[in-house]
Amino acid sequence: MVGITSYGAYVPLYRIQRMTIYQALGWLNPASLLPGEKAVANYDEDSLTMAVAASVDCLNGLERDQVDGLFFASTTTPYKERQNAGIIATALDLRPEVRTSDFATSLKSGTGALISAYDAVSSGSAKKVLVCASDCRLGKPGGYQEEIYGDGAAALLLGDKDVIASIEGTYSLSYDFSDNWRSDEDKFNRTWEDRWIRDEGYGKFIPEAISGLMKKYDLKPQDIAKVVYPCLYIGAHAGIGKGLGFDKSQIQDHLFTSIGNTGTGYSLMILVAALEEAKAGDKIIVASYGNGSDAVLLEVTKNIKKIKDRRAIKKHLESKKDLGLYEKYVTFREVLPIDTGGRGEEVGPTQMTILWRDRKWLLGLCGSKCRRCGTPQYPPQEVCANPKCGAVRETDDYRFSDKKGHLFTYTGDILAFSPSPPAIYGTVDFDGGGRWMFDVNDCELDSLQVGMPVEMSFRRKFHDLARHLYVYFWKATPIRA
Amino acid sequence: MADGIKDKVAIIGMGCTKFGERWDKSANNLMVDAFLEALEDAGIEKKDIQAGWIGTCYEETSVGKSAIPLSITLKLPFIPATRVENFCATGSESLRGACYGVASGAFDIALAVGVEKLKDTGYGGLPQTDSQVGTAYRFIFPNYTPPGMFAMMGTRYFAQYGLTPQEGKHVLARITVKSHHNGALNPKAHLRREVTIEDVVNAPIVAWPLGLFDCCGVSDGAAAAIVCRADMAKKFRPDPVYVKALQIAASSGEEMFCTDWDYAHVETTVHAAKRAFKEAGIKDPRKEVSMMEVHDCFSITELTIYEDLGISPRGRAKEDIEAGFYDLDGKLPCQPDGGLKCFGHPIGASGLRMMYEMYKQLQGKAGPRQIKNPKFGLTHNMGGIPPMNVVSVCIAGL
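Above: the input entities. Below: the structure tokens describing the complete assembly.
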């Protein structure tokens, strides 16, 4: 039996009301108003950081050493050449002897990665493959796409032991249907007419893939507990399920009015929400949409009960903050070229030799633990910092990224440049030992207190505009859920 | 057995430019100004100088690296010249180099210069040079500024000693008020206006809890000292000032990498001060130190220095501050010239500017700021940030 052995997801803290966007730009396109709210990545988040967060959620309590593959699916990978999955694998502190791949350029890349991971484990060529899917897409200001797109990520671990939802079959359709496209020269997505998209693409491919799957495995609508597929248009979404013969209770909530259409990760995020409520024996169908459709049939096992301590979708939905201003949204997403001042323009050169040599502690937040006195230290210290010890080169690697801590002290700095002032940072004392200073984000200065618990979150540390490099590191945030 | 620097070196001449936003002067111009004043004060000629030290920190925004800027600007005739840097302790390091050169017997007379030109940076605050913490650390340091790093000491001090933010800000404000009173009396200071507690408490926040008036400004300036062997000093003037102690202490790493240090004091100051008092033969600093110039980059820094020097009891500097203990007419005047707060902090120059004030006070030449019968003057500099820094404590006397 091969299938999903664990799941995780990530929704950014901030939400923006669609009405807020409409109030800023609805004068341009009065027909563009949609209901609800959508998730907005913070200025220091992107598809890669969100994939790390979802993966950390998925791998909670599991041995990272056992993961032997990582597939990253996104249409908004920060790099076009430099493997993004490799950056994620390093941040997760996986072994180097793993296979990593980016699945890119299509919204169905998430299910594509899922199916490939299933194939890898089924064939015996891998044992535990982590699939993470994430997007951070941009629609042009004032347009319908801007209202639709939300940011978020999902992660699924595939294996053949302790399976919680076995993969029973797949059905794939590939159509070069360019309803939505973005070339390497574009910052924003482009689309064709919505009526055509709805009638000829969205409304056709998902039903074709799902009914193809059901026919292949001789299934009727009443056999299926939940059907999962993305929402492009709310009315059409309901129509798809109805047309396939499902009743409303079988159609998994599309989350369109709470997180938005989150791109490549979208169908997998809705799937994670379904798994959170699923019980043993449930058959679930998940279908993606984008240049065709993949449909995958899953059957939930009794192991589903063993999955605890996942933030997944539910806890992330509950933990939210209204961004408030449309201007903040376009600033965070680098749509508006704000005045950073002279200080904000200064970025020193990034040494790739250092990023390589020190990748374990720069990306993986691994320090050292002294074998003699047991003191954890970050960054790793060759000479033990404990004045009563002084051991030299007697250390083991020690991972800090999955440790919680508390804020020993902090400040909100208005002199430092930040797109979201004040720049908040503080000293974190980790549970179990160790201390370092970190940027603190996803919080207001007023809410902080000396001693409050924090956790670590993988973020974009800076954007070197001169060399087009995104440099990543960890920041502290209040405990999210 | 090493027996310290006490009474082995004398300062026979000093110079100090007006500090401020010297748009009209380059670093080289400022260096020449300070040098000429020192030379005239010592009554010697340039050819008498046998070695020179230049202290400058942000060389990339002022003179550039090495000691070449010193030797070619002042046209020193192929003498030994050295550039030193230790963040904000740079000026004091320059003095140390010259003093040790003379005390070792290698030279009779040596020159120490400190200069910094910060107002070519182009924006407020210190230059945002990413690599000043090293090329690897810049990837893991938070998006910080010096005000923020010291502000964290404020947050921690308030929490640890039970001060509400309002109480804490009031105590800090009293420090600034005291310094501005002194700076208003000093023609070489940049800021010469008295301020009130309300001005300080209500000033815009720079890095919480520090406001604009809790932070020293960034400015341009230079200062210079000419030193000689103590046994030669009276040949040059009847009132030389003698170096009693020169101490530096650098962080061991335990403050940053272990969790014992409380971020409410500076451990290096404690070590440097203990050694300095021992070197100078001072047993009761609170009683014997006549005056001091300490590193008031931020008001909270000055507060913790009082305790770290062992002058105010730990956690209770508030009582001395509010009693006026450190005022110009108090028991131990602190920042009689106005401090970093009124001069600004051209990094390479500050340590020497502090010694300039101690020197003038000991010679009875401080005019309206004159302290009665001073015996020992202490200067203190701190370079870096509270968890990792280098501190210098120097003592001069008659």
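Note for the figure: Chain B has 13 helices and eleven strands.
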